Amino acid sequence: MTTAVFAPSRLEARARLVLPGLLLVVLALLPTAGLTPNLIRLLFITFVWVTASLGWNLLGGFTGQVSFGFAVFYGLGAYTAALMIDRGVNPYLSFLGAALIPALASFFIGLPTFRLRGPYFAIATIGVSEATRVIMNNLAITGGASGFRIVEHRPFRQVDHYYTALAMAALAVAVSFLIQHSKFGMGLRAIKQDEEAAADLGVNPYAYKLAIHAVAAALTGMAGGVFARYAAFIYPQGVFSFQTSVYILLMPVIGGIGTVWGAVLGGVVFGMVEEQLVANFPQIHLLLYGSLLILIILAEPDGLAGLLGKLFRRLRTPR
Asked: Residue 122 is part of which domain span?
């Protein structure tokens, strides 16, 4: 018995181009279908998590640099947007600031930490994250540990926040695909496979890591800014917490690390189930996340995207 392997047909190639656009149109039309405010809120937070998941995936999935410190960028983006909006700046300009400030901070973090490798880099990112949280807890301009309340001088319209988060997630997907299919993305994957060999081929691992770190930080910071505007109240123990970093890391691993749609799928699954787990199991929800992560790694290291890919290949392959 032989197994035939087929290259993707022209129809499948077109479907890969058309289906994302159709999905975006469907999601844009959903608010007109009479969704409840709670469901719109759930979709909004899902888009925020998808954006943060895609940001981490650029560094951890494409480049192989496992960071436990992305709460730094999420929190910096949240506070940047909060301070700008509170001072009357247009919210969409504040989201630009929420991307630029974390991107700038990524260079100060990456310059020393990217000289480390393996677990030493991961440990260093934990230290940076915790140090930032302690500093933000004691800054008067941000309200310190008491938090910061945003006063926006315009009426609250939930659907505006929905479309903002949807556009942000679409932008993150587009950026991820552009990087994945570029010469720059090939260099990142070469670094992940073998950093010394990539350097021999003309790739500068240090510069590439700094560049992709800045892009990842910008997307994650923008996600934090969009969330802060919706929440209207943020505090360091929330947006800068180690738990937030774990959430951001967990999503691409669940969905399929190193793949764009895997990071999206992980963000969608996490966004849909996270609230239910926290509400029903407030004391052990992190234990449940850890157990889920172990099961996925043992059963399917490529995540849910890898599992779906295997199912599709079995359906396509005649025996």
From this structure: 36-272
